[in-house]
Amino acid sequence: MQSVEVEGGEHARRSSLLNSDEPLIYYYDDVRTVYDIFQRGVQVSNNGPCLGVRKPNQPYEWISYKEVSDRAECLGSALLHRGFKPSHVQYIGIFSQNRPEWVIIEQGCYAFSMVVVPLYDTLGTEAITYIVNKADLSLVFCDKPDKAKLLLTSVEKGETPILNTIVIMESFGMDLVERGKKCGVEVFSMKEIEELGRAHRQKPMPPKPEDLAVICFTSGTTGNPKGAMITHQNIVSNASAFVKTTEKTFMPSSDDVLISFLPLAHMFERVVECVVLCHGARIGFFQGDIRLLMDDLKTLQPTVFPVVPRLLNRMFDKVNTSLKRWMLDFASKRKEAELRSGIVRNNSFWDKVIFRKIQASLGGKVRLMVTGAAPVSASVLTFLRTALGCQFYEGYGQTECTAGCSLSLPGDWTAGHVGAPMPCSIIKLVDVQEMNYLAAKGEGEVCVKGPNVFCGYLKDPEKTAEALDKDGWLHTGDIGKWLPNGTLKIIDRKKHIFKLAQGEYIAPEKIENVYLRCEALAQVFVHGESLQVSILQVTLKTNARGDCRRVFLSSLPQTSGLKS
């Protein structure tokens, strides 16, 4: 059995990797915060390469662990010199794609107990304005001038009066500085901030495990984004649980390399990066263009590759059309038999003859992959496990439990489930009687408890009470089912929403109601599957005359901001 029932009568289950019902909080005695994670990396790497970037058609260039640590402390010192407090209620915004500066800023904040608040493009301008105000962000780091301009526009309109400082990573013109002065915003370069801190160096004031580390705003489906408050202990326990799960088959080392392309604004990528940084490994960042990812992979040759189902589907589709179908099927079935026996390898006859090209497309050295954020088709996952010949884990979770609460175990390479509870989590299923899901039958809403569960939403006690009950259980809204081997299978959703393959939540009723405001339509049905893109089915009014398409499109601009 991969999970064990805990005492207490609620039929909750824990990882079979634990010796007691107490969930795992930390793996290493000296690593209790995300600051500790990086400091351990500095030591075990022996000041090896840490963060790498590349220009088009060039090799990766690296900065060392100590250089990252030094720049981070300078940056944090500059913030203190400018009046920011070394406190877990001091929030700092980061509006940037993945790049070394992201990690440097994050570690600079943690060196002085500050809290990171990520912003990202897909939130939209209104949501970004909302977050700046909700989190009282007086300072935001931006990677590009365009993002600084977006923030300045909101200040000029009087929408974000709290914002008074912007730091830009890339080069920019003096016109931006002058524009900032006119609306009371100081604009600095990243270099200026680091030099200021170097001239006014402060001794680090590290956080405590229970202190906030990040406020991760989730887009959701309706209303304003919610700011999930994640502590250092949340992150450390989640990363520790991953290490515990894979310790006998995969223990990261300074020889490992991670490709960073999934958004650092999301906790999945952050936890994976914590795992590799804690062990002194390297992180190579993609060039910022997903179309160049395959070239980055070939150049970097990563050993650790976290992915989302959307990318897996693309890989599967590409492979499907590049070789004869029957040959792929035959080779995959041969290796699938090995997988069922727990054998994972990339040196079989079928690897050399059929799958070597696929493995080489990822750099040829991948030894661990993990997928999460959305469901993945069992057939796609099984095929790629056979084709790539590496340990390939599937996890399940959400921001509110930091990242993951369940993960497949080494040796069980079957698909169609999301693994067993991670060592940091206890999972129970509760009745959803209106949907006829009963915990007594091993079905119900997935609820999670443990040191990885967040402490609530920022300044939103009502939403917090909806997610966390009085006993500390996180109600996920997903419907799960226990399988005979103790693994969890997600079978439904409590609310009428679903998640697309790219991880985006969709509320079909909301979309249907918007389209129904179009006079040309009588009925609308929006259908989506978590393994596919959404589909819109439209039925026109019987009395709609003339060019139906013209009537439909001309009506759309009148509906809640939808554009033709």
Automatic annotation (TrEMBL):
The keyword Nuclease does not apply. Gene3D superfamilies: N-terminal domain of ligase-like. One of its GO terms (cellular component) is endoplasmic reticulum. Signal peptide: none annotated. Its EC number is 6.2.1.3. It is an enzyme of class 6 (ligase). It comes from the Eukaryota. Residues 58-458 form the AMP-dependent synthetase/ligase domain. It catalyses: 12-hydroxy-(5Z,8Z,10E,14Z)-eicosatetraenoate + ATP + CoA = 12-hydroxy-(5Z,8Z,10E,14Z)-eicosatetraenoyl-CoA + AMP + diphosphate; a long-chain fatty acid + ATP + CoA = a long-chain fatty acyl-CoA + AMP + diphosphate; 15-hydroxy-(5Z,8Z,11Z,13E)-eicosatetraenoate + ATP + CoA = 15-hydroxy-(5Z,8Z,11Z,13E)-eicosatetraenoyl-CoA + AMP + diphosphate; (E)-hexadec-2-enoate + ATP + CoA = (2E)-hexadecenoyl-CoA + AMP + diphosphate. GO terms for molecular function: arachidonate-CoA ligase activity; ATP binding. Keywords: ATP-binding, Fatty acid metabolism, Ligase, Lipid metabolism, Nucleotide-binding. PROSITE patterns: AMP_BINDING. PANTHER family: LONG-CHAIN-FATTY-ACID--COA LIGASE, LONG-CHAIN-FATTY-ACID--COA LIGASE 1. Catalyzes the conversion of long-chain fatty acids to their active form acyl-CoAs for both synthesis of cellular lipids, and degradation via beta-oxidation. Belongs to the ATP-dependent AMP-binding enzyme family. This is Long-chain-fatty-acid--CoA ligase.
